[in-house]
Write a structure and sequence with these properties.
The structure is a single chain. The chain has about 675 residues and is an alpha/beta fold. It is about 35% helix and about 15% strand. The strands form 6 sheets. It has a 5-stranded mixed β-sheet with strand order 4-3-5-6-7, with helices on one face. Strands 13-12-16-14-15 form a 5-stranded mixed β-sheet. Helix 11 packs across helix 12. The protein starts with a strand and ends in a 12-residue tail after the last strand.
Amino acid sequence: MTFDMIDERSSTITLAHFSSLKTLAHFMARISVTAKPDNTTLEQRTRFYRWNNEAVMTFEEIYAKAVAEWEPIEQDGIPVIRIGTGTSDRASGALDVLAEFEKELGRLSVEARIIKTGSIGFCNYEPLVVISRPDYPRICYNNVKPDMVSRLVEGYLIEEDPCMEFAIGTLEGGDDDIPPHIPELPRAEHEMRLLLRNCGFIDPENIQHYIALGGYRALAKALEMDPVEIIEEIKRSGLRGRGGAGFPTGRKIESCFKAAETPKYVICNADEGDPGAFMDRVVLESDPHAVLEGMIISAFTVGSPQGYIYTRMEYPLAVERLKTAIGQARELGLMGENILGSGFSFDIEVFQGAGAFICGESSALMYSLEGKRGFPRVRPPQSIESGLWQKPTQLNNVKTFSYFPVILDRGSDFFSGIGSEKSKGTAVFALAGRVENVGLVEVPMGTTLDTVVNEIGGGVTGGKRFKGVQIGGPSGGCLPESFLGTPIDFDSLTEAGAMMGSGGMIVMDEDNCMVDAARFFLDFTVKESCGKCAMCRLGTKQMLSILDDIVKGEGKPEDIDLLTSLGRDIIEGSLCGLGKSAPNPVLTTIKYFKEEYESHIHDKRCPALVCRDLITYYIIPEKCYRGCEHCMVVCPAESIVEHPKRYKVVDQEKCVKCGNCLEVCPPEYDAIIKVSPAGELPNQDGQ
């Protein structure tokens, strides 16, 4: 018995139409949410239903069909080539590699199956290609270029040579219990991939791959449960929101369930705007059905007919794959009317924002969905009581929703057995900055920063000294080397002065100026402030002005105390999370790197040789090769001249401090250095 559209004013429904009291209860809940806000279309304001006897596929039938398509992929004797085609892969040239594989396979008449996957998250190894053939393990090749393809096809697919000179290891796992991993990489022993389990392994545009590996099994299970049972399972799991605040998800969903008003809405916050953060984008591009399944489970639990995924226009590939996934789920009866014959109906719409950072704040996001300016509002009431169109709304982050299927499928005890006492499950970070292995990292909560930076990240690039790590996005805190032993969980990071945030982690080395870094992050939040609160709008601008003076060598001794007091006032006087956390980079760098502020103010010196107004470029006569003119050629101001003794000299009055000369000076000479303070140049004849 299924649910279809009908004008309810002309229909007569009796108890005979319902197979159970549970089905009747779902129908009554749906009828109660027919009214829509006045600012929607007539079609949106009115929902109509009809019961009929059309056949509905059971989940067992859907699963069997998916397995029948998936199992032969690596069992029918045909080689399989997996190529990552996420945004970061494409930026590295993956589409050219894909085209070359298609060309070479055709030229050599080699039969092979190509699967276009999402990103596995190992950005420093992209483009990444995984090839498997009968009786061989899946071999993972890194940084593949088009000119390597013919060698791989001829050497491995035609001959017996696995071309190990291009490989980083073997991709093992790939079933329900063992997520895909590369054991040859040291990071494999520290990571635990729950959220990223399918990323880089399945075709995100083929729903059958997701289902065959256990996808939508949790939804089928949820539809047989009472909503209260689902809520209790989520609460027992200890899941906390991964959007930044870390609020207990079970309590949030329970409050929305108990809210009396209807209709209710479910919203996924996919407005990822942090500099250096790309966790949500990779999940949406590589495993979109995990997000959809979590949203449907949440909607069934609270009794919601409609969901929205709020993302940004800068994510075109994610939007494209989300829409494809939604269409496939509807086609199989996993979304839309009468999901899996349960009588429950729910649909999802993708909404693209204009890229305003403030719209990552929940109330500003909902105003944007309503077609209004993205302003945060005073709370209470919370969104679970009065959210979208003033109706109860369940809003969670991409990662939070994606954990729902894991928890219901594998049990709350499994999830709560991972992590620390108050922070359960895994943490996903976008590791960026001055670190060898940039990309996505998923580790159990409680893993130390040292493990992430040095064991998984491979340490600081170029053998430089680690200086600090910025955690939690542009409003997060900067922690020094002494905090590398800090466990990664909500409470430990907050206590240290940072925060979990949505999952950004930027590593900085000895060449980073912490004053300039604080100025950079504050400049971002100043530009992204919505301007509603005076303390955020004007206070952050004033802090930025003070930092600008300091990096120019115009700071005053009292500026440090002024920045501290002003930062605390902004936190107290701001309405939303942006204003309340914007001063964090400044406050933590003053707390842990105060000596750098003092050097800038008192000595007019930048210890890291970064701040342009406090440095000069100097050419060491003894190292300058007389016949080399690299620096002279690239200098835009023609400030580099030749000394009578033929070594080069910088005319400081003309120099614009672009740094081009330093970049092009041949490493075997290494003749150009930066000096700070700007006026303290070594004595040099003729300069």
